[in-house]
Amino acid sequence: MSRNRILIVLVIVLIGVLVGLWKWPRSQPRQTTPDRASPPQSATPAVPETASASSQDVVIPDLPGANLTPEDKKNIGKIVQAFNAPIDFWGRVIDQHGDPVPKAAIHYSFADKYFKDGTKRTGRADDQGFFSLNEGRGAGVYVSVYKERYYGTPRSAGSFGYGMPVGGKPPSRDNPAIFVLHKMGETEPLIFAQGSVRLPRDGTPTDITLRRPRPAVATGGKGDLQVELWSGYQPPPPHGQRYDWRVRISVPNGGLVERVGPFDFTAPQDGYLPAFEFAMPATTDRWQSRIDKEFFLQLRDGYHARVKLGVHAGGDIFVVLESYLNPKPGSRNLEFDPAKLAKP
Question: What digits encode the pLDDT tens for the residues 242-272?
């Protein structure tokens, strides 16, 4: 193998690692939340699946036909050392209120291999949410936390650079990385429905019931949701075809209001509108053939629901729905616990 080819391969390896680290989640846990207790001298350590080699005294042997110069060997050694950098990590898991999350599961993934998945290790936080890892190795480490009855947030995971300056700054014992989980609130049994329903393209109203495991067309005025779609789509479509389309979503004898926050699980008391309408002219700069929305619903019989839907105005033309309906009249609690699934 020629010297130039070896150098090219090594450069590609380095670029691949940098790109891989760059694609890790950019929302790094920061050390901004005040601790409720001092970090312990040692938290539950992670259990390694495999061991890593030492990065000391890296020696690059002569390769037949490579003609590597001392400078070449030096640069190759830097790459080898980057993948073998020592990693010691300290972190803490808290909830949205700043309270510790005890016994949270910790997952580590090390960038310690060139073109393969890195070494995996696991650990667990202590009763105050603290955790640590010692004697890891790699160019960087990706850390994520998890616990049942908690939701993940943008601050539930992060990447940290050790052998390369990519990702977040490595934490220390006195300044641990903070990870945040959102604790589940009080829940009530909900009817969960998920599926798709075909839609006419001429605006004919389609009434849909959300009181079955799969949403279905309702008859006799018993629908919980009504969708009307007008689409200029004509099959078979030429490449890049644009067309006018619009949709109207309503709740018969009820109302709907758009849901905004991912942890907004309580339906509002008022502010409901009779319908939501959306239009997509063919001349729109950022034209698309679908729209995704989430709504709280106030149904005709006093029940409340929340629904996530995606309207597809081309091809088969349909709406995809995921809904949560509280069968307790008047209750606005729509936080879902799979262990409390209500029967339709």
Answer: 999 999 999 999 999 999 999 999 999 999 9
Same domain, 295 and 160: no
The 10s digit of each residue's pLDDT in 87-143 is 999 999 999 999 999 999 999 999 988 777 889 999 999 999 999 999 899 999 999
pTM value? 0.75
How many other CB atoms are there within 10 angstroms of residue 30's CB atom?
14
Q: What is the DSSP letter of 100?
A: B
- In this structure, the answer to whether residues 70 and 108 fall within a common structural domain is yes
Task: Say which DSSP state 129 is in.
Answer: S
Measured distance CA(24)–CA(17) in Å, rounded: 11
Q: How many domains, in total, are found in the chain?
A: 2
Both 167 and 265 in one domain: the answer is no
Residue range of the domain that includes 215: 191-340
341/325 Cα distance (integer angstroms):
10
Query: What is the C-alpha R_g of the chain?
Result: 27
Do 65 and 103 lie in one domain? The reply is yes
Residues in Cβ contact with 21 at an 8 Å cutoff, skipping those fewer than 6 apart:
111, 139, 140, 159, 161, 164, 166, 167
Instruction: At 258, list the tokens.
Output: 């758009």
Same-domain check for residues 42 and 96:
yes
DSSP annotation string for 161-225? ESSSS-SBPP--SSSPEEEEEEEP-----BEEEEEEEE--SB---EEEE-SSSS-EE--TT--SE
Are 219 and 274 part of one and the same domain? Answer: yes
